[in-house]
Design brief:
This protein is an alpha+beta fold. It is built from 13 helices and ten strands. The chain has a four-stranded mixed sheet. The chain has a three-stranded antiparallel sheet with strand order 1-3-2. The protein is elongated. The structure holds zinc ion.
Length: 325
C-alpha cells in the first residue's frame, strides 16, 4: 500500500507508527487515556457506579472513533486508505475489542489499579468478618480515623427529608412516625447491620422518592435536624490532595460503596463494605456519613449512625406531604 511518509517501513512498523500517532493525540488533546469503549462501558459502570452516575468529565468523555480520526493529526501523516486499514487494528486498552464505535477518554485522578477492587469484593462476600485483613480495608480504617480531626460537623438546623409508605403512617403523622424503626424490624441496610437502627435522610423529596422506588404513594417528612456530630463525607469530588483523598474517592466512586441494591433477600453482599465503613466511622467518632444517592444521581443522603430512639431530641418536624405514584 502507498504511504504518505513511511514507504521505507514495513506494514507492521507502519501500524505501530499509526498507533503512536493515535496515542500522541490522546495525550496531546485530552491529556488522558481511554477508560472503556462501547463494548466494556457497562462493565466500567458496574465497577465505578459513582463515577458513571455523577462525574460529568466521564459522562462527556465519549467520542466516535471516526470523529476522533477526522480531527486527528493522523490526517496529515497518512492517506485515507492507510487510515482505514490501520484504524481497524486500534484496540480498547480495557477489553481489547476493536475501537469501532464510541470510546471514552477519561482517567481517574488516582491509580485505580492499586486498590485491587475485585480481591476486596471477593473477600467481602466470602468472609466479611475478615475484611480488616485486606490491606485496602486496613488503609480505609486508618484513613477514616485520620479524617475525624479535620471533618466538618453536620450543620445546625439543617433540613432533611425522610419517607415512609403512606399506608404505614397515620393521616396526620407526627415526628415519631418518621423515626428510626424498632431494632427488631431492622434488616441489613446499606450502612447498618441487622438489628442496629440508623436514620437515613435525603437532601430532597425527589431523592426520597428515588431511594424508595415505591410503587405506592409515599409520605415525605421535612425535618429540621439539630445534631452536632462529625460527618464522614463520601461524596465524589475532583479535588484530590494526597493518599487519604484517593482512598475516600475510591470509596465514593467504586462499587465497594456505591453499588445498587441487588436483592430484597437477607443476603446483601453489596452492603458488606459500606457496613464495614460505618463500623470504622463509628469507631473513629463520626456520628454520620454523607454519600451520593445510588438511585437518584442528583441526590445526596446522610445516615445518622447512632440516632436516639426518640428523634424529637435531635429533630423537629416541619411538614409532611404525600407523593402519589
Ligand atoms: Zn473496551
Amino acid at each position: 500500500m502507498k504511504s504518505k511518509h513511511f514507504s521505507a517501513n514495513t506494514m507492521e512498523e507502519r501500524q505501530d507508527i499509526f498507533q503512536e500517532y493515535f496515542d500522541r493525540d490522546l495525550e496531546h488533546y485530552f491529556d488522558s487515556r481511554i477508560s472503556c469503549c462501547e463494548h466494556c462501558y457497562d462493565e466500567f459502570c458496574r465497577e465505578w457506579p459513582g463515577t458513571a452516575a455523577r462525574d460529568e468529565n466521564f459522562q462527556r468523555s465519549g467520542i466516535e472513533i471516526s470523529y476522533f480520526l477526522e480531527q486527528s493529526r493522523i490526517q496529515e501523516a497518512f492517506y485515507p486508505e492507510e487510515i482505514e486499514l490501520f484504524s481497524k487494528k486500534l484496540e480498547c486498552p480495557n477489553c481489547a475489542a476493536a475501537l469501532d464505535g464510541v470510546f471514552y477518554i477519561f482517567e481517574h485522578k488516582f491509580l485505580v489499579d492499586e486498590f485491587h477492587l475485585s480481591s476486596i469484593a471477593d473477600l467481602a462476600s466470602k468472609s466479611p468478618f475478615l475484611l480488616l485483613s485486606h490491606p485496602f480495608a486496613a488503609k480505609v480504617f486508618d484513613v477514616i480515623k485520620r479524617r475525624f480531626e479535620t471533618a466538618d460537623s453536620l450543620q445546625a438546623k439543617s433540613i432533611w427529608y425522610r419517607g415512609r409508605m403512606a399506608k404505614d403512617v397515620p393521616a396526620s403523622p407526627s415526628l415519631s412516625d418518621f423515626g428510626p424503626p424498632p431494632a427488631t424490624k431492622v434488616a441489613e441496610g446499606r450502612y447498618n447491620h441487622a438489628g442496629h437502627a440508623m436514620l437515613y435522610l435525603a437532601d430532597s423529596a425527589n431523592t426520597v422518592k428515588g431511594e424508595m422506588r415505591a410503587s405506592q404513594p409515599i409520605s415525605v417528612a421535612t425535618i429540621e435536624l439539630d445534631l452536632t456530630c462529625k460527618v464522614l463525607d463520601l461524596t465524589i469530588c475532583d479535588d484530590i490532595d494526597g493518599d487519604d483523598d484517593e482512598v475516600i474517592q475510591c470509596l465514593a466512586r467504586s462499587a465497594l460503596c456505591a453499588a445498587p441494591r441487588k436483592s430484597d433477600g437477607w443476603d446483601r453482599p453489596e452492603y458488606v463494605f459500606t457496613r464495614f465503613v460505618a463500623d470504622c466511622a463509628r469507631h473513629a467518632g463520626f456520628g454520620a456519613v454523607r454519600y451520593g444517592s445510588v438511585q437518584d444521581h442528583e441526590g445526596v443522603n446522610v445516615v445518622l449512625l447512632e440516632p436516639p430512639s426518640d428523634i424529637s431530641a435531635i429533630a423537629r418536624l416541619i411538614t409532611t406531604h404525600t407523593i402519589p405514584v
